[in-house]
């Protein structure tokens, strides 16, 4: 009887507690004049990136938030005394952690020295000669000003707008403040007497925070932040707001992408030249017996021509994107909005990724053709490779809501080159994801068939025509097709699969119909 009662009461308590959390209205505090994180607009409504994040969490969970923004010193007092449940726009510190519980990080910011234009600042020690406008209860006091001995000649401001106005009108010489927030105030108020000088200081992490011990509320916020980050809404929220970035960070990021693009270009050109040199060497060696090897030389020349055509076609597009958007980033870095910089950077990253995929497949094919890939068969369980492949592609598949499953209906070990089989599985699953629409499924299976292990990769994708099936594994018909969401491939994956399976003296084939999905099969031996 006690067990029955306990089995009924505990679920009821959980349901009641969950219902209470969903129906609870949490009071949110923070600075009323701290854009882009939080502020009160002309209509009296709370605005800012942190407000948008909480509103998005509210839409996802049904939890309600009531905003009570105030001066910063009051906001800190309200969270301590329980007048508010959450405080936004707060920087994490060890001192604050003794009184508050912090959410997962939302944004990283550096502080800058905002100083009157006519004052020189060659190094930070020059600040000892100038008058500071300090922000009341700001983290910069404990983290920088006091340890540096600068908290002596100063006057106090209750907010960042008040502090920057004081510097602009000569009531003080400089203020230490978060870079993006300070730049926002300068541009908004069209200040002419202030500029940023010196190096970036005090790397800081912005979070949401609650009163110490309120772990339930922190858990709600962290789950909401995680969900927004996963579904892409967090990035969209940030793209709607201006975060002014220091030039040195902006240029470093641009240089990083340009450098990566150049490295990929050099690596690809190197592998192409090595492959051509190796191919010519083979042709020269084989011409010693033209009467016997004439047909083989013709095939090599045909493959060389096809590969040169593939390389010229597949590399032109990503390189044009890399170079074009790199030029845009360099030419427009000072004018382009942060959202555009992120967009250009993502395009460079995607193009670089495509070029790197081509490089990887091209390198493996080149090594195979020149006899430099060793064939090292061993006994192993195929289920391990299926598990690794599933882990590798789980996040990519999740972006299209594609489910991947695998099973092995035989306990026998296979005898094969483990690295080659891993490459085959990766290419087949990658293709399956590429040609399967959103919400589809992929199943990897291994079962015994006529004293061999028959492995299949089945998808619910767009399928293949009969004409395409007849030549899908050949260089002659090789061409990269666009996936269901315009994903671009390298066009070499299935050729590699066939090459590696034939090294095992086994077979690979496909069964497919348009709009009914595809199933790729290949066999592996159980014995040496």
What does this structure look like?
The protein has helices at 2-23, 49-61, 72-81, 94-97, 139-145, 160-168, 179-189, 215-230, 233-239, 247-286, 290-332, 338-369, 382-398, 418-434, 466-470, 493-503, and strands at residues 25-31, 33-34, 38-40, 46-47, 64-70, 86-91, 100-102, 107-116, 132-135, 154-157, 174-178, 194-211, 377-380, 403-408, 414-417, 441-449, 452-459, 508-512, 518-525. It has 528 residues and is an alpha+beta fold. It folds into four domains: 2-107 and 207-239, 3-Layer(aba) Sandwich (D-Maltodextrin-Binding Protein, domain 2), CATH 3.40.190; 108-204, D-Maltodextrin-Binding Protein, domain 2 (3-Layer(aba) Sandwich), CATH 3.40.190.10; 247-369; 377-525, Heat Shock Protein 90 (2-Layer Sandwich), CATH 3.30.565. Strands 1, 5, 6, 7, 8, 11 and 12 form a seven-stranded mixed beta sheet that branches. A hairpin with a 5-residue loop joins strand 18 and strand 19 (518-525). The longest helix has 43 residues, at 290-332. The radius of gyration is 31 Å and the shape is elongated. 32% of the residues are buried.
Notable features of this structure?
4 domains; 528 residues; disordered N terminus; seven-stranded mixed sheet; D-Maltodextrin-Binding Protein, domain 2; 19 strands; five-stranded mixed sheet; alpha+beta; 22% strand; 16 helices
Compose a concise summary of this entry.
This protein folds into 4 domains: 2-107 and 207-239, D-Maltodextrin-Binding Protein, domain 2; 108-204, Periplasmic binding protein-like II (D-Maltodextrin-Binding Protein, domain 2), CATH 3.40.190; 247-369; 377-525, Histidine kinase-like ATPase, C-terminal domain (Heat Shock Protein 90, 2-Layer Sandwich).
């Amino acid at each position: 009887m006690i067990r029955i009662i306990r089995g009924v009461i505990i679920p009821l308590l959980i349901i009641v507690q969950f219902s209470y959390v969903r129906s609870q209205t949490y009071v949110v505090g923070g600075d009323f004049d701290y854009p882009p994180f939080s502020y009160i607009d002309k209509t009296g409504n709370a605005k800012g990136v942190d407000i948008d994040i909480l509103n998005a969490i509210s839409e996802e969970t049904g939890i309600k938030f009531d905003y009570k923004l105030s001066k910063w010193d009051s906001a800190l007092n309200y969270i301590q005394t329980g007048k508010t449940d959450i405080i936004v726009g707060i920087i994490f510190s060890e001192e604050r952690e003794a009184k508050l519980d912090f959410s997962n990080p939302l944004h990283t910011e550096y502080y800058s020295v905002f100083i009157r234009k006519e004052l020189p600042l060659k190094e930070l020690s020059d600040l000892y000669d100038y008058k500071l406008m300090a922000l009341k209860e700001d983290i910069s006091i404990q983290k920088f000003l006091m340890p540096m001995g600068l908290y002596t000649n100063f006057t106090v401001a209750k907010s960042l707008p008040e502090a920057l106005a004081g510097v602009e009108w000569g009531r003080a010489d400089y203020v230490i403040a978060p870079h993006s927030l300070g730049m926002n105030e300068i541009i908004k108020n069209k200040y002419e007497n202030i500029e940023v000088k010196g190096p970036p200081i005090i790397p800081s992490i912005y979070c949401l925070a609650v009163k110490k011990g309120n772990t339930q509320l922190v858990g709600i916020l962290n789950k909401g932040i995680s969900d927004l980050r996963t579904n892409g809404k967090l990035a969209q929220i940030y793209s709607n707001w201006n975060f002014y970035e220091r030039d040195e960070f902006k240029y470093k990021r641009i240089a990083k992408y340009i450098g990566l693009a150049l490295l990929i270009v050099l690596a690809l050109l190197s592998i192409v030249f090595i492959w051509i040199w190796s191919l010519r060497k083979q042709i020269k060696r084989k011409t010693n017996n033209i009467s016997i090897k004439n047909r083989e030389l013709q095939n090599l020349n045909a493959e060389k021509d096809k590969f040169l055509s593939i390389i010229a076609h597949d590399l032109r597009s990503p390189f044009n994107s890399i170079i074009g958007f790199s030029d845009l980033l360099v030419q427009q870095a000072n004018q382009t909005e942060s959202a555009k910089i992120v967009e250009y950077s993502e395009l460079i990253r995607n193009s670089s990724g495509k070029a790197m995929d081509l490089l990887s497949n091209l390198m493996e094919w080149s090594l195979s053709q020149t006899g430099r890939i060793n064939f090292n068969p061993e006994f192993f369980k195929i289920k391990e490779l299926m598990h690794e492949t599933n882990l590798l592609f789980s996040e990519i598949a999740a972006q299209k809501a594609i489910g991947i499953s695998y099973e092995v209906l035989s306990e026998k070990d296979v005898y094969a080159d483990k690295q080659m089989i891993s490459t085959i599985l990766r290419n087949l699953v990658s293709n399956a994801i590429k040609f399967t629409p959103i919400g589809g499924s992929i199943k990897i299976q291994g079962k015994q068939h006529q004293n061999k292990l028959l492995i299949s990769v089945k998808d619910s994708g767009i399928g293949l025509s009969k004409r395409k099936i007849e030549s899908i594994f050949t260089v002659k018909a090789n061409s990269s097709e666009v996936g269901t969401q315009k994903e671009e491939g390298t066009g070499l994956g299935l050729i590699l699969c066939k090459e590696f399976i034939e090294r095992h003296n086994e077979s690979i084939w496909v069964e497919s119909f348009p709009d009914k999905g595809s199933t790729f099969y290949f066999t592996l031996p159980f014995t040496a």
